[in-house]
Amino acid sequence: MSQTLTLWRNANLATLSDSSSWGWIDQGALLTQGEMLLWVGAEADLPIEQAPYITQTHDLGGALVTPGLIDCHTHLVYGGQRASEFELRLQGASYEEIARAGGGIRSTVAATRAATDAQLLASARQRALCLMREGVTTIEIKSGYGLSLEQEARCLRVARQLGSLLPVNVQTTFLGAHALPPEFEGRSDDYVDAVCAWMPQLHAQGLVDAVDAFCENIGFTPVQTRRVFETARALGLPVKLHAEQLSDQSGAALAAEFGALSCDHLEYLSTSGIAAMADSGTVAVLLPGAYYFLRDTHLPPVAALRAAGVPMAIASDHNPGSSPGLSLLLMLNMACTLFRLTPEEAVRGVTVHAARALGLKDRGQLMAGQRADFCVWDVAHPNELAYWFGRNPCTRVVVGAQEREL
Ligand code: DI6
Ligand code: FE
Asked: Ligand 1: residues within 6 Å at CB?
């Protein structure tokens, strides 16, 4: 069998491929073939029979290597920004008040519709580059600021374009049920009908990897969310949900009933919601950036999620209203300081558990059979990834076994 292999040697590996102690391998090495990892282990154990096929060797200088980071919840494609809404909130207006007054998501919908394709692509590209410089190799991108068939398709196409223009993997999520567009004012059930009618068309264009909804007082009801999920299920599309962010709508239990990949936010998650997620194997995606930026004080039930064995992921939730941050490393720090995750839980939250939140089995850990997506860090120990903030210790990023230059 002819094969050419690349050896990446002289590294300390946080593989995260077992359930404790970071999956640590001292003086490790990785063998890649094509885009995949063929072998991962201690350099001393390198399989001798593979040695003749190694055509290229990289010395990583004894540095720390982790899996590539995965940002499993972003709203990266949109027009405009909402800094003046931030000022209003600082003067005492709440996120919900602004939304009910027609601002909030709706103001971004207007700015998105007014933007050209080139403007949407250029702004989203800059944002993706910020995430990528810190080691992000897979980004989930939601629609939800177009809110018509054409505009949602346009935003999802821009997301797909980013994945082909940049050395990063993009997963798209259709979030038509994000807010009620002005042309459907007072007709939210009709709008949900429309979202359900658009879904097969967007799916047929190859634009949808998963389906999401905003189940909330200022979003859509559980009954409406169920209709969105039923349509997704009929198309064989996995679902996820913005659940229990501002109030308890029992959204998590509903999502769990549909075998959701993830429930996200979860500040107001109930005990029964936790049990439902544990039963269905649904990932809890925690979003400390939104909690921080909305100056929320109602913590997600992290200790109870941990006790129930619900896997926890961490994401940026990058969006112009509730989380304009573009640093996944800062989210690791906030997940620890604000939500009391351990540094190891936080790092698992942007690797192995983030992969699971996207239904991706081929990434998130360093082991044979996974994609060769990994980061080299200028720190001695992986707990430092959650410790520093405002510093970027990422020195090299490899995506599909190709070193990327940004
Ligand atoms: N929850 C959020 O935090 C974002 N969307 C959602 O459903 C916020 C979106 C925005 O304010 O633009
Ligand atoms: Fe979100």
From this structure: 104-105, 108, 178, 214, 242, 245, 290, 317, 319-322
